[in-house]
Amino acid sequence: MTNRFHKNFQINGISFATVQEILNVTSTISPEIQTFLQDWFSNRETLSVNTSGSTGKPKPIELRKDFMINSAFATAHYFDLPSKTSALLCLPITYIAGKMMLIRAINLGWHLDIVESTLHPLKNVTKSYDFSAMVPLQLENSLDKIDSIKKLIVGGGVVSNQLQEKLQKIDCQIFATYGMTETITHIAVKKLNHVHQFPNFYEVLPNITIYKDERNCLVIEAKNIVDKVLFTNDVVQLISPKKFDWLGRLDNVINSGGIKLHPEMIEEKLAKVVENRFFVAGIPDEKLGEKLILLIESSLKIKDETFSKLALISKIKTLKTLSKFQIPKEIYFLDYFTETTSGKIQRKKTLEKLEF
After folding, report:
1. pTM for this structure?
2. In this structure, are residues 51 and 181 in contact, taking their beta carbons and an 8 Å threshold?
3. Closest by alpha carbon to 102, among 65, 77, 138?
4. CATH class held by domain 10-207
């Protein structure tokens, strides 16, 4: 099955008659892409894919190729992306998101252009495209040219409120995605602009069943793409059988004096007053058990750190959406955060840099 490709499939404007022609062309573009396609067109029924490593050490998992094809068709159906769709691949092939752009193109007959995966992916792009996928920082750096893409999915990190506000006057239809390597990229999407009702929630793709377990974490049944029920560590609120609101990771929940705090919810509110990259976390505290702190990435040497902290705390206290429990007890500045190779913040490893 996987040694076949759609007759309309193209890479960088080149059509193909054989698999070997595809491998020959991709060898001139990227050795990693060629190696991946050699595995894809092999007789093996599965592919080994690395997880992102955002919540732990990256690890290889085996994904069924037929499930990956099912995922590709589900995306095409949801976003109405037929054969000859023009698409741009600007993500690294290292992880599942980049791999799936290729698999969609191969099996759906897309006309795929491949550019170098950088933080400014549209810098040298002069064409228009029907579809592409980016991480939030790539989108942030491409706002001046993003209308050259009709539909864009964004994953690999949270889209900040500030960035979402910038998207509202953009013609390109932009969607946040929810998913992971185990679900072969997204199983749910949320519109980020052209939204008529707020707040907006994630909507699952066809043939996906969701519910919550006793931890209030999302459970996913997707027989066409996952061969077992998947119990996540994502705390959610179910809006309907097909829609949910993502509240944060169970791994990150802070128990401060018996109050459970979800960092991601607090960060969404703090983003209105904190300009630099940041996150909140809990550290041991004798009275509270865990104390809420704010970590800010700043390479600038602050002349009067105490004054800066006091000024920021004053701003934070003006946020009416924050409860008194959600106000950080301490603020720390770090030159840089520890990241995964895909650019996600590794919270635990970053915390280890602090000296208390």
Report:
1. 0.83
2. yes
3. 65
4. alpha beta
Angle separating helix axes 65-79 and 96-108, nearest 10 degrees:
80
Sorted by where each begins, the domain ranges of the chain are: 10-207, 253-351
> Both tokens of residue 261?
């705090």
Model confidence at 174: pLDDT above 70: yes
What is the model's pLDDT at position 126?
94
With beta carbons less than 8 A apart as the criterion, state whether 164 and 153 touch.
Answer: no
DSSP string, 136-174: HHHHHTTTTTGGGEEEEEE-SSPPPHHHHHHTTT-SSEE
What is the C-alpha to C-alpha distance for residues 297 and 92, in angstroms, rounded to an integer? 25
d(CA 167, CA 226): 33
Q: Give the Cα separation of 80 and 153 in Å (integer).
A: 13
Report residue 189 as tokens: 């999407």
Contact 120, 139 (CB under 8 A): no
Whether 170 contacts 146, CB under 8 Å = yes
At 293, the amino acid letter reads I
Task: Answer whether 10-207 and 253-351 agree in fold.
Answer: no
| CATH homologous superfamily for the domain 253-351 | ANL, C-terminal domain (3.30.300.30)
DSSP single-letter state for residue 117: -
- pLDDT of the residue at 54: 59
Question: Using CA atoms, how far apart are residues 243 and 173, in angstroms rounded to an integer?
Answer: 19
Answer whether 131's CB lies under 8 Å from 152's CB: yes
What's the pLDDT tens digit per position in 284-322? 998 899 999 999 998 665 556 666 788 888 899 999 899
- Candidates 148, 152, 108; CA nearest to 129 is 148
Exposure letters 165-181 (e unless 16+ CB within 10 A, then b): eebeebebbbbbbbbbb
178 forms beta bridges with 188
